[in-house]
Design brief:
- With 134 residues, this protein is mostly beta strands.
- The chain has a 7-stranded antiparallel β-sheet with strand order 2-1-7-6-5-4-3.
- Strand 4 and strand 5 form a beta hairpin.
Length: 134
Amino acid sequence: MRALILLAVALPLAATAQDLLPGRYRTTTTTDLPAMAGKPVVDEDCITQKEIDEGLSKTGVESESNCKVSGMKRSPGKVSYQIQCQQDGMKTTGNVTGTLRGDAFDFVVVTSGLQAGGKPMRTRVVGKRLGSCK
């Protein structure tokens, strides 16, 4: 589960360099998954220009997860794509939409296959640049 949330943070940053500045970012992740609802996860990560150029496809993804991105659409300040993940015998699919503006990003990930009864899970990831990486 954590890998999927971290993937939601990492993969959306696959935008062009002018959409996001490299540096240290504080991210706040919220979700409607019952076990985590109302409990934001706050983290800090250093994002390099190289990682932005490569789409950050490996940043924050646990080694046992197997996720693929398809349908990537980019425009200035916006990105959207679909994800398919397989982890611990569980298959999930999702749609990601996000906005990026120099020192901040805001993404919504809607995934299926995680909650009982097939109810989609909504995760929001908001990031703010704190400064240069140390």
